[in-house]
Every structure is written in C-alpha cells, then in structure tokens.
C-alpha cells in the first residue's frame, strides 16, 4: 500500500497502444450514442476500416438498451468498445489505464512437465489471449460467456516465477531480481497462496469479459499446469465519477498518488528493463522491455480502521481523506510540506505517516507503478471482513523499487497497525510479443 504511485487510469499510453485514438478519448457524440457493441460487431467494423477501437451503431439491441438506460448516456459510460493491443513492445496490463475487474492467478507446472511442455503452453496461451483482447472468441470451443460484448479493455499479462527456471532447465537465465523478497515484520504469509511457476494477470472493464478470459486460459493449461492460487479484485468502474479520478481503496483513501506517469521522461527507465542492461546485477538480455511485478495480498483490518474518526485516519496516512491532498494543504498533486508544524508545535504530517515514509524522495528516488485491485472474500471465522488490497507494483528492478520502500515502511509506518500482508509473489514479466511470436519466446529459445 505504498504511496509511491499515481494512477494512470485517466490518460496515457498503454503497453500495447490502447485503442483510444492515440491517447485521446473517442468523440463524445459517438460514445454517447448508447448503441451496444457486440464482439462480432467489433470485428465487422474493424474489417470495414474502423479506427480507434470505438464501434457504434452495430445494429440491433438499441430498443432494448433504451428501455433500461438513459437515452443519451454520458461519454464515460461507454465501456465495451475499448480495445488494448495484445502485441507490442511491452505487455499490456502494465501501464494500461486501470480496469474495473482483475484476476491474478498463479500456475505450477505439472510433475514431469519441462521446457518443451512450457513452450507449447505459452504458444497456446498467446494464441488464446490475442483474439480475446480484440473482442473475438477464444479459439476452439468458446463458452460464449462474453458473446454479446466488445473487448472491454481486456488485457492478459504473463510472468515467470523463480521456480519456473528450475523446472525448465533455464536457471542460467534467471534474473537476480527474482531472488526471494526479504522477510518483513508485517508479513503473515501463506505459502499456498504465494509464488508460483507462472503468473497471469487478467484485467477488463467488464466482469463477464474478464471471467471468460480467465476460464479460457485455465482450460488451455490442460494437463501441463495446475492452478496454485487465484485472487480476484475490483476497482471503480469507468464512468462512476463525473470525471476520471484516482482510485479509492476499501479504507476510503485515495490510493495511487505519486505514481509515475507514462508522459514523464523517466517513466520508461523506472518501470521497464532497459534494452542495454549494464552492471553486475543487470537483468538478462531476454528481459529487455519487460518489467517485474511484486504481488501482495494485503488484508485490511477494516473494523479497527473504521472505528477511528476521520481526523485520526488522515494522520495515519498524511493526506486528506476527501481529496487525497497532503495535510499541509493544496491538491492531490501538491508536494508535501514535510517540515511544516501546526500551532501545537507538532509536524502537520506526522513522522510515521504512510505518505511521508513512502514518498520517493525519502527512499532514494525509488519508484513503482502501483496498479492494484481491491478484494472482498467475505467474512473470516471471527466474523471480521476478509477484504483489502491486491497490491501489484511494477518496476524495472524490485531491488531498487519495492524492497527499499517496504523496508522503510516496515520500520515505522503508522498504517502497519491496520494491515496484514498475507500472500506474496515476485514475477519476471517479459516484453510484449510481436505478431507471430509467443510470449516469453526470447527466454524459452535462448
């Protein structure tokens, strides 16, 4: 839950090139038409030369839609037509604007499965994922779950865990960045819900589209790999606010302030592995253009948190709950006045406030792109909520990003009293696949 990131859910290019007219939203008049977009309608329009990923007037269904929706919905409510390119320099789902639904799933290779079987699996997964991100059915026997829907900003992102390299005889290609994360005092980790040979992140703006993709990928695993763990989460849906805003977590806090933006000069070097690695701890060449994902399941002690008045909650975070601005004033993007004191002579932003400790300037410039989901898994045996944050942080090197920041938080973050880290994973996410390639090909054929 570090405060090292700003959401990129409102603008910015995505990894494979989000089809929004090169970073610009579709025309308001088109998005406001209220026409539904079918998966096959998307294909027909694309075949006819449609550009920008927005397809309207696909025919049929308009009368039924008008019976349940306003005649002229606002532009932000048009979800189904957004498409995110699967092929590209980087995998989609890293700098892609935040989606409303996410599934994180780890697989272990089956006993006896090795490099050849893993290559075949990665080929199948690539062939399965690419058409679904365009709104087309999964190859083979499609379940028709998302038959009537457009791509809905579907992304599928693949990664490799440390153990994958042992299982496939590729230990010499394993990055040092995949060394086990250090233990932290806030850890209460469940090994059964941590790590894994392979990892997939599925994201979409529609729950049915996300489930359809998840199910198709699980089926393609066949006898080669079995699910180790699965976690599902959600965020605010696009269009739920009057204008794009930073997400809020289940504590009600604005969650994502300080995130590096794709438009910033250092974004590429902070989030993606450079094309020409250097130094003794450099990632291997096959990781060029890739990124490292730290995944943590963080349960929030919501009963304890919600029992505190808002003023005390804000002291824990160091920011106003209403708008995410620092307690020293301004807006969400205003720099914190860390030395400012109140009439009582105390620091306005307490020394142990989460935002103060986590900020990049307090951690040698360490930067991560946080792209997390909230989760709700019902009630625990003690009747308390089993809910919190599926924390996903992207960086070019976790040894320079997540690890130093979390060590700092571990030594005195006021928020630590209200959270429990219950699962953890670290994955090497290779660069995007070009058309005709499968994800991870540079590693598997090295």
Automatic annotation (TrEMBL):
One example GO MF annotation: peroxidase activity
Cofactor needs: heme b
Cellular location(s): Cell envelope
Broad class of the protein's primary localization: other
GO biological process: iron import into cell
Alphabetized UniProt keyword annotations: Heme, Iron, Lyase, Metal-binding, Oxidoreductase, Peroxidase, Signal
Cofactor: how bound: Binds 1 heme b (iron(II)-protoporphyrin IX) group non-covalently per subunit.
Pfam families per the UniProt record, alphabetical: Dyp_perox_C, Dyp_perox_N
Biased composition range(s): Polar residues: 1-12
Catalytic activity: heme b + 2 H(+) = protoporphyrin IX + Fe(2+)
Enzyme class of the recorded protein, top EC level: oxidoreductase
This protein's GO CC annotations: cell envelope; cytosol
Keyword Nucleus carried by entry: no
Domain Dyp-type peroxidase N-terminal, first and last residues per copy: 91-235
EC number: 1.11.1.-
Segments of this protein annotated with the region Disordered: 1-36
Biased composition (Basic and acidic residues): 15-26
InterPro entries for the chain: Dimeric_a/b-barrel (IPR011008), Dyp_perox_C (IPR048328), Dyp_perox_N (IPR048327), Dyp_peroxidase (IPR006314), EfeB/EfeN (IPR006313), TAT_signal (IPR006311)
Domain Dyp-type peroxidase C-terminal per the UniProt entry, residue ranges: 247-433
Entry-linked PANTHER family: DEFERROCHELATASE, DEFERROCHELATASE/PEROXIDASE
Family stated for the protein in its record: Belongs to the DyP-type peroxidase family.
Role, per record: Involved in the recovery of exogenous heme iron. Extracts iron from heme while preserving the protoporphyrin ring intact.
Protein name: Deferrochelatase
Organism: Streptomyces montanisoli
